[in-house]
Design goal:
This protein is about 20% helix and about 25% strand. Strands 1, 2, 3, 4, 9, 10, 11 and 12 form an 8-stranded antiparallel beta sheet that branches. Strands 7-6-5-8 form a 4-stranded antiparallel beta sheet, with no helix packed on it. It is an alpha+beta fold. The chain is elongated. Strand 5 and strand 6 form a beta hairpin.
Length: about 220
Amino acid sequence: MDHAERQPRKRGWRFVLLALVLAVAISGLVRSLWLDVYFIPSESMEPLLGTGDRILVSRTDFAADPIRRGDIVVFDGRGTFAPLNSGKGPLADAVGALGHWLGLTGSDTTYVKRVIGLPGDHVVCCGAGGKLTVNGQPLEEPYIYPGDTPSEEKFDVIVPQDRLWLMGDHRSRSADSRSLLGAPGGGMVPLERVIGRPVQILWPLDRFAALPRPAQATPSKNGQ
């Protein structure tokens, strides 16, 4: 009788284990192809995104409608914002990747910033009135953190083809394209490194909100 009871219990645990493995596999597939969750580790995108926010990121939004000026993007910063190799070793990298995948920690190589310059854009700080200019036109930036200026650092860049000029909304707290002007690539992030667009704040619950896509900030010199 005891042996007969143990057999269903074993089958029950096997079923639970199989269901768990399938759930993880399906979650991994969804997160690699359609939607993923990321942790915001810093204040660089305040006031829109705060430290500790968990955001839902669509990997497919830009497939139907290409990246526009003013979009917020999540991207892999390896080779631009971060070294290609962390130098921490494979075990530390694996632990960090697991914590990131579970949404418990941020990533040392994944960033979220706002698109200021598209390929071919001429971006300057600053024009008349202290505003950034894109292709000679002043950029209206209502999203900038209250009290911040568009930039304390002066720059004059032309964005290469297939790259983006990216900046945080909390300009005085953001390490972004400005910080890498003297580095290889000049702080410009390849389009192929973009992971997707944040579409929802998931956590904390009192900040649960959709993140609608903004209209393009200003027309470019070719009228697009």
